[in-house]
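HUMAN: Please help interpret these tokens:
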Amino acid sequence: MDIQSHTLDRLRKFFSGGLDLVETLGLLVVALATSAAMFQETLLMAGAQSVHLADLLLMFLYLEVLAMIGQYFKSGQLPVRFPMYIAMVALARYLILDLKDMTEWRMLAVAAAIFLLTLAVLVIRYGHIRFPYREDAGEKTRKAFVRE
């Protein structure tokens, strides 16, 4: 029985390490691709010798993706808020760029989607502050203890 649990522990560690490696490689690929896209967009703006709001919003989306990857590498966790922020900016960009071709109902739907994402972020933030995870509560207690 003890040998069996030891073997299962070794298998878990092996697969966990493999998944961590694949995850890290995937994040590096996304970071490199995002950086390349930013560089290409910068070259396009320099070549056109003009910068439009659509360009700035696209660059902001790229920065948000890089910030999300950086946050994961720093903490090992990915707050669900980051993809929500990216979605809000992407929807705002869509609304700004295609405003002329949109019906009133589509504009309202996109605005409502942004509003719902905003509410979701607020609920998540409130829940995280009001009902922290046990690890977070212990960390806050430690920080308070260190300050005193």
